[in-house]
Structure formats: structure tokens, C-alpha cells
Amino acid sequence: MPSRFFITGTDTNVGKTVVSALLCxxxxxxxxxxxxxxxxxxxxxxxxxxxxxxxxARVVPEAYRFGPPVSPHLAAGWAGxxxxxxxxxxxxxxxxENLIAEGAGGALVPINGKQLMxxxxxxxxxxxxxxxxTTLGTINHTLLSIAALRDARLKLRGxxxxxxxxxxxxxxxxxxGAISVIGTVPKLAKLNRETLRRVFAHHFDRKALxx
Length: 211
Description:
The protein is an alpha/beta fold. The chain has a single domain, classed as Rossmann fold. 34% of the residues lie in helices and 20% in strands. It has seven helices and nine strands. Strand 8 (156-162), helix 6 (167-177) and strand 9 (181-185) form a beta-alpha-beta unit. The mean pLDDT is 96.
């Protein structure tokens, strides 16, 4: 069975795209950003292509793209569009292809007038990986996100922490969240495919990412 995951986070700019690139490089996975805002700057697909050295053929086109770097429901509203989850389906890729799908913002970001990012996750039925910071405040943010994901009856596979190692925060998240931290990404002086693969080899539980 292929390894396929949905990457969400406790917040925007928490490190989801770097983690997505890392997993694409380490698992030889395809990348998909179903909903992209902020296309006026460099998109997440472009960043993952650069960091993981993916060819354009390994990147699935977005279902929705919007220029302003704001919440999907706002960007769509400003464009006079309503995001329809029924139009977003798992890409038609090879049955053995690994896939990393990255959400926009955090787990409870609104998509349209009634639905949230958790509704998209539930529709796609992919195991979820939660990306969180290691710094002060992460325990509360992470536990709230875990609760929201479980309340939505999603299959949460594990937590990935990004930043300087913090053993106390990691242990608190694992204890009170009853979840495993399956990977950590330290601060890196250089971001490229080789560095990301080394981080995966030394700081991730490979078995936790097997289908």
C-alpha cells in the first residue's frame, strides 16, 4: 500500500510546506495542494518542487488558486467564487504512488460559508499529520488542534514538531494529547533535498509513516 497523508498545522507559517517537501523527498511522493491562496507570491507547489527537486510531473495542480494570501473563504469570496468540496477529489495517480497533500492554514480554517479544512480532510479520507512548533505556546495550540481533529473523527497518525528541540514540550504533547511525535525538524542552515532527507533519516519514525 502507498503512503498517503494530509498535512495540516496548528497555524499558518508553522512549517507545513517544509515538512511536505521533506516527506516528498524522503518517500519519493507526489505533492498536491488542493487549495492555494497567495499565488501572487511563490506558491507552496513551487517551493516544494524546489526543495524536494520534484519535476512538474510529480506535482498535482491545485483544485483552487487565489491571489491574496488570506484564508480560503476570504480569498474565494473576494474572487466571487465559492469553494465546492464536491469538486475536490483524490488525484488520479498510479495505485502505488505515494502522495503528500497539504492543507491551507490550520485545521479549522474556513473553506466556504459552512465548511472548514477538517471537512476537506474528511472528504479525502487520508491519514492526517499535524505540524506544530516547538516553542512557547505550542502545548495549548497542539492539544486544541488534536481535539479538533479527533472531534471531526479524522485518523490522526502523529505530530511533527518544527524548531529547536524542546523535550518538555514534546513530552507534554505526547502525554496530554495521547499521541506520538513521529518526527522533528530542527532549524536548518540550508534547505535542500539532501538536507531534508538526512533529517528524515535521523529524526523521523519511518514505521509510523508506512501504510
